[in-house]
TrEMBL record:
Record's subcellular location: Membrane
Coarse class of the protein's main subcellular location: membrane
Organism name: Terrimicrobium sacchariphilum
Recorded coiled-coil stretches: 146-187
Recorded catalytic activity of this chain's protein: ATP + protein L-histidine = ADP + protein N-phospho-L-histidine
GO molecular function: ATP binding; phosphorelay sensor kinase activity
Keyword terms: ATP-binding, Coiled coil, Kinase, Membrane, Nucleotide-binding, Phosphoprotein, Transferase, Transmembrane, Transmembrane helix, Two-component regulatory system
Topology versus the membrane: Multi-pass membrane protein
Protein name (record): histidine kinase
Domain Histidine kinase: 379-593
Keyword Nucleotide-binding carried by entry: yes
The protein's Enzyme Commission number: 2.7.13.3
Length: 594
C-alpha cells in the first residue's frame, strides 16, 4: 500500500476556495441586498447618467449626445437589481431625456413624433432588463450548484484526508509489524544457527568465534563480540564485524567502547540495551556508536546453571532493533551458547582429568610391575647367575685349551662361542627385566601370544620349581595387537597369583596349566588354571575391585590393573572357580587386523 499525497489537492482546493470567496463577496451586495435598495440604486444610477449627460452636452457642445450614459445606467441597474430596477431606470431615463434634452426643454410634453423613439428606447431597456434577470437567475443557480458542489468536495476531501491518514497509519503500523517480524525471524534463525555451531565446534574458542561470525555474516549485525572474565578483567574472547568495522574491531583496546557495558552485564546478570531513539535530547550518547552509524546496542549475559560465564554484545544499524520480543529470543540464544561453553569447559576438564588419570594408571601399572618383579627376585637372580656361571666355566675351559702344547684352537674357539652365547642369554634376561620396569608409553604392535607367555615363564622359572607345568598352546594362532609389556604384566600377575594360591595347599602337589585357543567369536583366549585354595562365588567379582585382596600381604591393585589393561586392549578378564581345587583365570583379546 502507498499513502495518498495531498499536497497538490490541498493547493487546488485553496485556489478554488479563494475564487469561491469572490463569488460570495459579489453575492453579498448584489444578490442579498434589499429590494428597495436595488430600486434606489437604479434611480441613483439613472440620475448620475442624467447629470453626466447634461454636463457633457454643455461641455463639448454636442446637442445630439443624449442616450449613452442612460444605456449604461440601465445595464448596471439591471445587472445589480434585476428586471424591475432596470425598467425603473429605463422609465426614469425616458422622462429625463424628454425633460432635459427634447424641445421644448424642461417640459414633459410627449409629441406623436417622439413616441417611436421612446418606444424603441423602452423596449431596448426592457430587453436589457430581461437579459439581466435571466443572467441573474443563471448566476444564482450556478452559485447554488457551486456551493452544493463545494460542500460535496469539502466533505469528500475531508473523507479522503481521513482515509489517507488512516491508510498512512496502517501502512506505518504494517511496516513496523513486518520489520518486527523480520527481526523475530532473524532471532529464531540466530538461535538455530547457534545450536548448529555448538554441534559443529570442537572447543570453546571455535564456538564463540562461530557465534560472532553467525551474528555478523548471517544475521546482518554490524559488530558482535563475546566478553569473558580473565583474572578479574573483562577481555574479548572473540569478535566479528562487517567490512566497515573490521579495522575498528581489530584495534579495539581493553578499555575501548563497550567494555563498561559488558562489565555491567557480567556484574548484574541482566541484559542491557542502548538506542538513539530512547536517548533524551540533552543526554550524551555513545560517540563511537554514533560516529559508526550504530543505532542500537544490546548486551546479553551468558548464563548457565545460574553461573555468569560472560557477555554477548550486538551492534545494529537499525534504530528499532532489540525490542522486548527480539531481546527475549536473543537471550534464549545466548543461554544456549552459555550451555555450549559450559559443555566444552566440562569436556576440557574431563579430558584433563582423563589425562591425569591415564598418567596415574600408567604409574600404578609400573609400580605394580616393579612390585611383581620384586617377588621374582630369586628367579631373576637365578636367571642371571646361570649365564654368569657358564661364562666363568667356558672362559676357564678356553684358557686350558690355549695352555696346551700345541694349543687346541678348535676347542678354544668352541669355548669362546659358548661364552658369547651365554653373554647374550644374560643380556636378554636383563633386557626383559628392563622392559618390564621401564617407564614409557604403551607401544601397540602385532604379537604372538604364545611367545609372550613363554617369555614370562622364563622369568618365573625359579618360582615354578616343583610345580607341574602343563602348556596347551593352540598351533597357528592369529596374532593379537597390543603392548608387549602390558600383556606380560597381566600374564605374570596371574601366574604369580596362582603360585601364591598353591603355596597354602601343601597337601596337594602344585599343578599349573596354561592354554591358548580361539573362541567361538573369533577372539584369542588364554586360560591359566591352578589347583590352589580357590575362590568363593562372592570373591569371584570382588577380587577385581581396587584394594581388595585375599593375601595377608598385598595392595589389592594387581588384578584391578590387569582387568583395566585387558579392557583397554578390547578384551575381557574374568575368573571361574574350579570347585574345591583352585581357580581358572581367563582373558580374551581381539585378533589383529591384517
Amino acid at each position: 500500500m502507498t499513502a495518498y499525497s495531498t499536497t497538490s489537492d490541498d493547493t487546488s482546493l485553496s485556489r478554488e476556495q479563494a475564487d469561491f470567496s469572490k463569488f460570495k463577496l459579489e453575492r453579498s451586495w448584489r444578490h442579498r441586498c434589499p429590494v428597495a435598495l436595488r430600486y434606489l440604486i437604479a434611480l441613483v444610477l439613472a440620475g448620475l447618467a442624467w447629470v453626466t449627460t447634461f454636463g457633457l452636452r454643455h461641455l463639448i457642445d454636442a446637442p445630439s449626445f443624449q442616450t449613452p450614459f442612460f444605456v449604461c445606467a440601465i445595464v448596471l441597474s439591471s445587472w445589480i437589481g434585476g428586471a424591475g430596477p432596470g425598467i425603473v431606470a429605463t422609465i426614469f431615463s425616458i422622462f429625463a431625456i424628454e425633460f432635459s434634452f427634447t424641445e421644448p426643454r424642461y417640459t414633459l410634453t410627449f409629441t406623436f413624433s417622439e413616441v417611436p423613439k421612446f418606444t424603441v428606447f423602452f423596449l431596448a431597456g426592457a430587453f436589457i432588463s430581461l437579459l439581466a434577470r435571466r443572467q441573474r437567475r443563471d448566476e444564482e443557480a450556478l452559485l447554488v450548484a457551486r456551493e452544493s458542489l463545494e460542500e460535496k468536495v469539502r466533505d469528500r476531501t475531508t473523507d479522503l484526508e481521513r482515509a489517507n491518514r488512516k491508510l498512512t497509519e496502517e501502512v506505518a503500523e504494517r511496516t513496523r509489524a513486518e520489520r518486527s517480524l523480520q527481526r523475530l525471524n532473524r532471532a529464531w534463525r540466530v538461535r538455530g544457527l547457534f545450536n548448529r555451531s555448538i554441534a559443529r565446534s570442537a572447543d570453546e574458542p571455535e564456538l564463540v568465534a562461530r557465534v560472532c561470525q553467525t551474528l555478523v555474516k548471517s544475521s546482518g549485525y554490524r559488530l558482535a563480540w563475546v566478553a569473558e572474565v580473565d583474572q578479574n578483567r573483562v577481555v574479548a574472547a572473540a569478535h566479528a564485524a562487517d567490512d566497515r568495522f573490521e579495522r575498528v574491531a581489530e584495534a579495539w583496546a581493553a578499555d575501548g567502547p563497550g567494555y563498561p557495558m559488558a562489565t555491567r552485564v557480567i556484574e548484574s546478570g541482566l541484559a542491557f540495551s542502548w538506542a538513539q531513539r530512547d536517548r533524551k535530547r540533552e543526554e550524551p550518547g555513545d560517540p563511537w556508536s554514533e560516529s559508526n552509524e550504530v543505532k542500537a546496542v544490546l548486551a546479553l549475559p551468558l548464563i548457565s546453571d545460574d553461573a555468569i560465564l560472560g557477555a554477548l554484545l550486538l551492534y545494529s544499524g537499525d534504530g528499532d532493533a532489540f525490542d522486548k520480543q527480539e531481546t527475549d529470543l536473543l537471550q534464549q540464544a545466548a543461554n544456549d551458547v552459555a550451555q555450549g561453553i559450559l559443555l566444552f569447559r566440562a569436556r576440557a576438564a574431563r579430558a584433563s582429568a582423563e589425562t591425569a588419570l591415564k598418567k596415574t594408571r600408567a604409574e600404578l601399572e609400573r609400580v605394580s610391575r616393579v612390585t611383581t618383579m620384586g617377588e621374582l627376585t630369586a628367579s631373576i637372580a637365578h636367571e642371571i647367575n646361570q649365564p654368569l656361571a657358564a661364562l666363568v666355566t667356558n672362559a676357564n675351559a678356553c684358557l686350558r685349551w690355549l695352555d696346551r702344547n700345541p694349543p687346541e684352537m678348535d676347542e678354544a674357539r668352541e669355548a669362546a662361542r659358548r661364552i658369547i652365547r651365554d653373554g647374550k642369554r644374560g643380556s636378554d634376561v636383563l633386557a626383559r627385566i628392563r622392559a618390564m620396569l621401564k617407564k614409557q608409553d604403551p607401544i601397540r604392535e602385532d604379537l604372538a601370544i604364545n611367545e609372550v607367555i613363554d617369555e614370562i615363564l622364563a622369568l618365573a622359572r625359579t618360582g615354578l620349581d616343583g610345580v607341574r607345568l602343563v602348556k596347551d598352546y593352540s598351533a597357528r594362532l592369529p596374532l593379537v595387537h597390543g603392548d608387549r609389556v602390558q600383556l606380560q604384566q597381566v600374564i605374570l600377575n596371574l601366574v604369580l597369583n596362582s603360585l601364591d594360591a598353591m603355596k597354602v595347599t601343601p597337601d596337594r602337589a602344585p599343578a599349573l596349566s596354561i592354554s591358548t585357543g580361539v573362541t567361538v567369536g573369533g577372539d584369542i583366549e588364554v586360560a591359566i588354571c591352578d589347583n590352589g585354595i580357590g575362590l568363593t562365588e562372592e570373591q569371584v567379582e570382588k577380587i577385581f575391585t581396587t584394594f581388595f585382596t585375599t593375601k595377608t600381604e598385598g595392595l589389592g591393585m594387581g588384578l584391578s590393573i590387569c582387568r583395566s589393561i585387558i579392557e583397554q586392549h578390547g578384551g575381557r578378564l574374568w575368573a571361574v572357580p574350579n570347585g574345591d581345587t583352585g581357580v581358572t583365570f581367563r582373558f580374551t583379546l581381539p585378533v589383529a587386523l591384517l
